[in-house]
Amino acid sequence: MLSRADIDLVVFDVLGTLVNEPGGIRDGIRELAPDGDIDGLAELWENHVARRQQRMLDGRDPYADSETVDREAAELVADKCGVTDAAAIGRLATVERRLEPWSDTVAGLELLARQFPIVGLSNASRATLTRLSAKAGLRWHFLLSAQDANSYKPAAEVYRLAVDLAGSAPQRVLKVAAHAWDLRAAQEVGLRTAYVPRPVGDPPRDSDAFDLHAASLADLAATLGDD
Amino acid sequence: MLSRADIDLVVFDVLGTLVNEPGGIRDGIRELAPDGDIDGLAELWENHVARRQQRMLDGRDPYADSETVDREAAELVADKCGVTDAAAIGRLATVERRLEPWSDTVAGLELLARQFPIVGLSNASRATLTRLSAKAGLRWHFLLSAQDANSYKPAAEVYRLAVDLAGSAPQRVLKVAAHAWDLRAAQEVGLRTAYVPRPVGDPPRDSDAFDLHAASLADLAATLGDD
Questions:
Q1: Per CATH, the architecture of A4-20+99-225 is what?
Q2: Which of A74, B26, B75, B170 could tie A93 with a disulfide, CB 3.0–4.6 Å?
Q3: What is the ipTM of this complex?
Q4: Are B167 and A127 in contact (CB < 8 Å)?
Q5: What's the pLDDT score for residue A110?
Q6: Fold of domain A21-97
Q7: From the UniProt record, which GO molecular function terms apply (chains A, B) (predicted)?
Q8: How many angstroms away from the CA of A104 is the closest CA of chain B?
């Protein structure tokens, strides 16, 4: 069983794991187009972001940060709804700065911060992470953006940013996420993994073997504290 | 008078302003050489760091991060004292990871974090900042290391990291420090400035004109909150 003494640093996924990203995107779209097909427009947004990140990971597109990609997605959504108000589109483009934390996030980070260096590692840009952290009340010992590697998760070099920061062996770094795909990629680089379920996460398959499954961040802190 | 509505982001110097750097270095040296000339050895350390940073800023030395320079300083001090114990020298080399916060630091950052995005901007390396923040209980919305610019304060490009992160005009970014030299350099780049006195700081001269002089971080939060 993994315990406190095995871990030098805890790295958190942010979007989806600590804040409600899909809910926030839907709220932003609803603000722009109250009578629109919110789920369909959110799918348009999410597909655009996924496709653009994949094209960058495949080397077909040059790197662009998350703010650039979010702006493109906001423009696509606005186009689809026939909205042309630049201020409204600009507000949707920055929706990730205003995502809401899950109910256990702020207290859970506080608990874990007493036990470990806590670091965020996110596909969001540095500027977005700063505003999002301030708005949602997430406070860190350090923050890494995939922008630091000019790439996106699940690329291995993004997880290596955390290993380099820790200055430890990868197996002494614990990655926490609500997305099995994110934990699998962290595992490939040698990190330890903790899955935390969220309503919008990507649950593990039978074939996954993560080090910990915690019901919440408080549960994770309690589990790691018992050593 | 500068007030809350004028500022998008607050940037803090860390070493000296939030944690007692000279005191921590002296404690580390005392641990290595209890009977040594602590002030003389601390001067040796501080002069080495200052000279190395200056040589890098002048382009005479290639960039090396703060951990590398601290290790050189620790070896110089050990040499001077005739200490050869590698573990003891290694512990002194990482002394900046264990600096103590000033008494108002943790609560003051907490107060300011409710009002603004709070960002650290330090000459310490990213790895040192992570460990130091965890040990001293400093928690951030983002952290910038001069290492991100392969340089050191007072080089202008280090302050520009904060302006880029804010995505605002420089005059909407407030720099907080106990060192007048640091505030002067921030001013050159257009940032607003707040001086907070510390026993080990660099006080303003009559010719300095900083935007705010606060007695403590709590005083700074109260002053900025009145708008």
A1: 3-Layer(aba) Sandwich (3.40)
A2: A74
A3: 0.96
A4: yes
A5: 96
A6: DNA polymerase; domain 1 (1.10.150)
A7: hydrolase activity, acting on acid halide bonds, in C-halide compounds
A8: 18
Does A167 lie at the interface with B, CB-CB under 8 angstroms?
Answer: yes
Q: Which residue of chain A is at minimal alpha-carbon distance from B166?
A: A127
Residues 89-128 of A with CB under 8 A from B: 113, 116-119, 126-127
Residue ranges covered by each domain of chain A: 4-20+99-225, 21-97
Copy the structure tokens of residue B130: 């992570």
- Any idea which fold B21-98 has? DNA polymerase; domain 1 (1.10.150)
Instruction: Identify the closest residue of chain A to B8 by CA–CA distance.
Output: A131
pLDDT tens figures, B127-161: 999 999 999 999 999 999 999 999 999 999 999 99
> What is the pLDDT, as a whole number, of residue A225?
82
3-state secondary structure labels for all residues of chain A = CCCHHHCCEEEECCECCCECHHHHHHHHHHHHCCCCCHHHHHHHHHHHHHHHHHHHHCCCCCCCCHHHHHHHHHHHHHHHHCCCCHHHHHHHHCHHHHCCECCCHHHHHHHHHCCCCEEEEECCCHHHHHHHHHHHCCCECEEEEHHHHCCCCCCHHHHHHHHHHHCCCHHHEEEEECEHHHHHHHHHCCCEEEECCCCCCECCCCCCCCCEECCCHHHHHHHHHCC
Q: Do B9 and A130 touch (CB under 8 A)?
A: yes
